[in-house]
Amino acid sequence: MILGGLWSFNNCCLFIHKLAYGENPKDVNFHYADFWFQVHDLPSRFTSEPLARNLG
Questions:
Q1: Strand, helix or coil at 1?
Q2: Organism's domain of life (predicted)?
Q3: Counting CB atoms within 10 angstroms of each CB, which of 3, 16, 28, 49 has the fewest?
Q4: What is the three-class DSSP state of 41?
Q5: What separation in angstroms does the CA of 36 have from each of 11, 26, 46?
Q6: 32: phi then psi, degrees, rounded to nearest 5
Q7: Which pTM value belongs to this model?
């Protein structure tokens, strides 16, 4: 069992989805992924949520 966040293989994102009974594999959406970024030494004026959303 694989738990946790994003996984990678060969420097590419690895997406895993456990199919529910009767679920069509063609209907699984792999177009989006959540990412977390850590930025060091960021000036305090750049630490607002609206700015982070715009950068994302």
A1: coil
A2: Eukaryota
A3: 3
A4: coil
A5: 17, 28, 17
A6: -135, 150
A7: 0.45
